[in-house]
Design goal:
The chain is of the alpha/beta class. It has two domains: 1-24 and 131-159, no CATH class; 28-127, 3-Layer(aba) Sandwich (D-Maltodextrin-Binding Protein, domain 2). The protein is built from four helices and nine strands, in the order E-E-E-E-H-E-H-E-H-E-E-E-H.
């Protein structure tokens, strides 16, 4: 791997051999279908959200997804129950739009399925998540350097 655009690991020491450069921070939101009873609200409590069936990402492809889910719901008694897992965000958003369940997302993805999914603020609001570029430490090759520069410019445009 030369580089990736990711959320950083929750444990700082996981980046020992790597460099992470933040591109933006995003609000953690709850994605619901437009037909979901919560869709009429502006926000939903973490406790209410935890009682809903959750759509998530597969552990094999996204091993840290459960870490983030558990960290966000650590302060509430009820914990989210995953009813379906997908190997990418398009599957997660399609299942949410179909009314199968709800999902955690960020306001950085508000434009995806915006006519079929509503993103709601969570209360209390979880800590914002960083999205950035992770690379090996040291000098990057010309193609990787150019990609990083283009990514920075693209993320500035969506801030």
């Amino acid at each position: 791997m030369q580089l990736a655009i990711i959320l950083p690991p929750l444990k700082a020491n996981a980046l020992e051999e790597l460099r992470f450069e933040e591109l933006l921070t995003a609000r953690v939101c709850l994605a619901v279908s437009c037909a979901h009873p919560f869709a009429r609200r502006q926000s939903v409590s973490l406790a209410d959200a935890a009682r809903e069936p959750f759509i998530g990402l597969t552990h094999e492809e996204y091993p840290r997804y459960l870490e983030y889910l558990n960290a966000i719901f650590a302060r509430v008694n009820d914990k989210p129950r995953l009813v379906e897992e997908h190997d990418g965000w398009s599957g997660v958003f399609s299942a949410v739009a179909a009314g199968t369940g709800v999902a955690l997302t960020s306001d950085a993805f508000n434009y995806v399925f915006n006519d079929r999914i509503k993103c709601l603020r969570l209360t209390p609001e979880p800590k914002r998540v960083a999205i950035g570029i992770i690379t090996r430490k040291g000098k990057l090759g010309p193609a990787a350097e150019k990609f990083c520069q283009c990514a920075k410019e693209a993320f500035v445009a969506i801030r």
